[in-house]
What does this fold into?
Amino acid sequence: MSEIGKNVANRTFEELLRNNVQFIIPFFQRGYVWQQKEWKQLFDDINAHVVPEIEDLGGDLEKDALNADHFFGPIVAREEGDGTPGMQKFLVIDGQQRITTVYLLLAAIKTKLSEMAHESQKAAEHSNFLSKYVVNDPVNNAGAGEYDALKVLSSKGDRYPTYRLVFGENPQISDQVSADMQRFDQANNGIEDFKKYLGKKLARDFSDASSLWMLAQILLKSLKIVWIPLGEKDDPQAIFESLNDRGVQLTAPELLCNYLFKPLIKPNSMQHEQMHNKYWLDAIAEIDSPSGDFEDYLRTNLSVDEKKTIGKGRRIYVHFKNKHKSLSAEKAKDHLEKIKSGVRIYNKIVNPMKTRNEHPNISDQLMKIKSTGMGACNPFLLSLLQAHADGRANDAAVVALLKETLVVLVRRKVCELPTTKYDSMFPSMLMHVDCELNPGKALREKIRNEGYFVPDQEFEYGLINKALYRPRELPFTRMVLQEIDRSMHDHGQLPDFSTLGTIEHVLPQTLDEHWKKYLGDECQDDELSLYKNTLGNLCLLSQAGNSHAGQDPFKSKKKDYPDVSALTRDVKNRDVHWGIGAIKGRGKDLAKRALKIWAWSD
It folds into this structure.
């Protein structure tokens, strides 16, 4: 069998795909990520630069397609001699998206022509001709339905959808195919997206055998690539990383995955794929939160015990690589196990309503902390809950530490104080407090030493004079109001706060003529716009109750407010003229309760 070539040269896909060959997308590559933007650009280039030239030549399609050059970019590859007789194998280091796109497109054209075979002899001939560019002949006793038959072979979720596109919906089932089928996510796969795109594109613009054949000839002959072969001693992963910045960049999780698995990949072994499924893919699948994602989880996990929270994006990977420059297979596996084990705890932090902690008091504190939106404390929470899960921290200590954490978060947020030190204060917090007899006190002292302690007087001032209602932070506003409302019920018969999800402004946010007349000169007071959003002017109502109250006069609101909420009862019991003075007075009364709810422990 003739070789593709060991020297840098201009090549066509006809030359690359003609013989039994397999272009293997190595484990360290990402999945297929081209989207409609790239697909459209490919077809636009073909229509703008290749088709007109072929039409101008107007002779033999196959010769004309070969002469209608269009540069399609480089492909960097290294030949892999694995002992498979009758087949060349190459690792694709750069050009994965290009070669995969052309291969899938040729497979789709072949299928389309095959479907036309009953009505067109030419379609049948063209389909048969294309088979040798899409499917390898059986080698090494492998049947045509096995993965060896694919000329482009990927991993990480792309192998099976490629298999489906080439061989149809009912492929032969081997152990490897079966394992891939179980993890196949049709709704979130780039190759499946491309398949859907091609179904519409080919039906609209290439609906007959002649146009499909011309497109196939353009792909095979007109698109020119620069073939760049690597030597046996070249490190494909290192070269890949140096080339990656030119295309669609790998994300931090993808880079970290490659680095962790590099010492685990052994020649002619699938063990690393099994570990990738068990640790990496399962961890990604278990991330269960609208506000959390796998990259955020990795950042949180790897920031534990660090001096400062790791930066976002590629800085996660750079940090880990610099810290673990020499990574053995054993250490890599340890890191994978740590990453996998932390996901369950992370879910309890970022989505505590859905993934509740088994301990009710811990779960309650986590939900309140989540409402503050202060994700900077998550590395501390992850380390604390991991210590609890491992038996290194008891229930009482965990609850105490969570309460102290909530106090600082609430107090600083209400007072609109800086939070920049959270990134340096929280990642290593557990190291400072876990050996102390009174961990809660130790945490408070750490906060005081950092200059982040908020005294009662400052907290009280913020509650009375700072806007508690902030449109982008409504979960926090609701939490504060719910906790104050809860403290006002003497007999423990609490309302169902899930039905009181709307924040009511006693003094409406938008004033109608009645309210303007009611307020008189105070309507022109610049402070009015501030105080209408402070604690003293807020209640909790159902959505229907809030809509009903609207801009009603104060007396009407008092009459219509339900007794189910202690905050609305409080308004009903106030015989005052409702303006800035009344709002500040109520804010001062409610602030006294808040001081007890979010009190520093003695």
Notes: Strands lie at 9-12, 21-24, 70-79, 88-94, 152-153, 223-229, 502-505, 538-541. The longest helix spans residues 36-57.
